[in-house]
Amino acid sequence: MILTDRDIRDALAAGLLAIDPPPPAEFYAPNGVDLRLDSRLTLYRAPAEGEDPVIDPAGPGYSFREAILAMADDIEIGADGFVLDPGRLVLGWTCEKVDLTPGARLAARVEGKSSLARIGLIVHLTAPTIHAGSTGRIQLEIINLGPRPIRLRTGMKVCQLILEQTLGVPEVGYRGQFAGQRAAG
User: Fold this and answer.
1) Which residues are catalytic?
2) Whole-Å CA distances, 129 to 64, 73, 82, 144
3) Choosing a second label site near 97 at 20 to 30 A (CA), which of 27, 35, 86, 163?
4) CA dist 169 → 56, 105, 107 (Å)
5) Which Gene3D superfamilies has this protein been placed in (predicted)?
């Protein structure tokens, strides 16, 4: 069951969910709440000369964090924004920290905003799920699939958080490789 704006406010008031900083009234939609883009982005760089460009996620000793550190750099979005060219993938973060209390029977999905999708901006490729018990800022896989460059600005509404009630309480809250993730820096 998807929570309505009223249900989301009730969950916040009851301490079943926390969004910090709290969203203003105009960020609520009938079935979700808007989240904003943080000032930090992770940009991928081309392989260095002689570097093996192949990523082997099923290979022995593979670590997502180590792979990203080896092929990407963090930047701050400046006052003029960051221009995302067509076909380019960057990692971003939400400004807001989202905490889903493990026993609250809540999970969430991060979804793009239709106004941005219609110009080609995608905010998650295949990873919309925010598991029950998750805490932290939400990392976004942002790609421009449109025909023109798109300017990203710190604080822009970039995605929606859709909250769902789970049928039960998970045995344990989320403890995967992204547990407690936070923006770099």
Assistant:
1) 141
2) 18, 25, 26, 21
3) 86
4) 35, 5, 10
5) 2.70.40.10
